[in-house]
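Local shape tokens

___
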Amino acid sequence: MPPPGAGPLLVRLPNWLGDLILAWPVLDAAAREPVLFVGPAAFEPLVLARHPRARYFAWSRSARYALAGILRRERPRTALLLTESFSSALLAFLAGVPERIGYAAEGRGPLLTRRVERSAPARSTPRTAEYRVLARAARLVVEEETPSITATDHERVAAQDLLARSGAFGDSRASAYVVVASGAAYGPAKQWGGDRFGEAAAAIAGPRKIPVVAVGSVADRAASAEALRTARAAGAKTFDATGATDLPTLVGILAGALLVFTNDSGVMHLAAALGRPTVAIFGSTSPVWTSASASKVANLYAAYPCSPCFRRTCPIGYGCLHAITPSRASEAASRLLG
């Protein structure tokens, strides 16, 4: 807890949705005291719906230092940097935060007052554990190891309103469906392929006579369209919600899913934190570092000799992704569903 008269804790949130969810137990711990969260504007409704007493300051890459004066007036006592960028440390320095805690990376060591030592080499231990080490340095007590989120009534209603307009559910409520998230902003080395997602999803949705719903950003529309074409060819009803959801609506859709098929992405972590059965496909990234550790998650990984390379694109043909077959994914899904 902060000493009497001290200012609030400032927490610089991760920039990626998946990392935000992996850091969620740290957010829960930080929100027990006066806290200022700084992060992308899109995350604000997700964070404040669960931590209404916190204050949120939206950050953008185009104006990354514009918050310095505003934060200075808040007089935070400590900045906990869950990012590893130089710019996040410089923002805390310019805001006059007396204690600045984070991992030394991108040459930002001189801007930190406490450079936290890693317990293992970078990317060799779960990301959740890396965040807990940072939290301890900021004197926070993290009670949960596995991220957990519950959808709000508003999020569920927003999702039902969107799905009801799809026509895929007839006159009934969207009570059961399979979600596919074919995209991954990181790059092609994380993307399994829309046709594979469609085939795996149809194997689960078809026998149950439930629709397949695609989600993702506008950039994922081509991959989603391919997944839904494949699913329809196998006889499944489909609905494309790609590019049509804000983050609260996405939470509501995932919370109502029977099952989620996804790449290693923000959707994967969000679905797992919501407790949904999730089949996650790993390519160039590591299931040790960024996997969702919830009990209802199947992490599929080919473990090629060159894996994990953490590349955005593959110069030798994406063998680690292609080695994972749709039947392997649907079989993993069937096991999750019992």
User: Anything to note?
Assistant: The longest strand covers residues 35-40.
